[in-house]
């Protein structure tokens, strides 16, 4: 046993070491961080979101949200939130749109946005599309009741 015990100790350390190291970090948001943007105005968040849009969305959705050959329009008279090519991408409310952006956009790197980036760019899009009064207060808990037209 005296010779074997250290071997098992090392084995255990390696095992647990790898166990910890390979624990999947699923990108889940730590508790309490999902509503940090609440309390700001939509406009304040959209000011941040404009930069996100310029960096990560404009290539496919266009400088004026008019769409390109790759991505559809995201604001303007012909834009219907959640409808793409006649099919439904998400329910027409703010929460569903946030979820879609977080999980599916940018199309070339889905899931890469931080929570606040997704919130900020959502606020930018909602203002561009006249879905919200810019000076109103953003409350993430109320997003599901914000119906989009
Ligand atoms: C590489 C191209 C590309 C990039 C970059 C991209 N998108 Fe998209 N986006 C698309 C395509 C294509 C669709 C159509 C739906 C689909 O294919 O999933 C779409 C759909 C959408 C929709 C749904 C439109 C609707 O009908 O309501 C939203 C919202 C959206 N994108 C937001 C964003 C945001 C925000 C960013 C930047 C963070 C972004 N996209 C970056 C290509 C892109």
UniProtKB/TrEMBL annotation:
Cited Pfam families: Cytochrom_C
Single GO molecular function: electron transfer activity
Key words, A-Z: Electron transport, Heme, Iron, Metal-binding, Transport
Protein name as annotated: Uncharacterized protein
Organism: Dehalogenimonas etheniformans
């Amino acid at each position: 046993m005296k010779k074997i015990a250290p071997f098992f100790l090392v084995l255990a350390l390696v095992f647990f070491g790898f166990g910890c190291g390979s624990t999947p970090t699923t990108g889940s948001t730590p508790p309490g961080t999902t509503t940090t943007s609440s309390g700001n105005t939509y406009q304040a968040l959209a000011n941040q979101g404009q930069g996100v849009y310029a960096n990560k969305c404009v290539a496919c959705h266009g400088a004026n949200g008019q769409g390109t050959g790759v991505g559809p329009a995201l604001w303007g008279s012909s834009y219907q939130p959640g409808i793409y090519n006649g099919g439904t991408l998400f329910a027409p409310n703010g929460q569903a749109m946030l979820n879609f952006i977080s999980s599916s956009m940018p199309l070339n790197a889905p899931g890469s946005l931080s929570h606040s980036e997704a919130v900020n760019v959502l606020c930018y899009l909602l203002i561009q599309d006249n879905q919200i009064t810019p000076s109103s207060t953003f409350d993430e808990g109320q997003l599901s009741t914000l119906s989009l037209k």
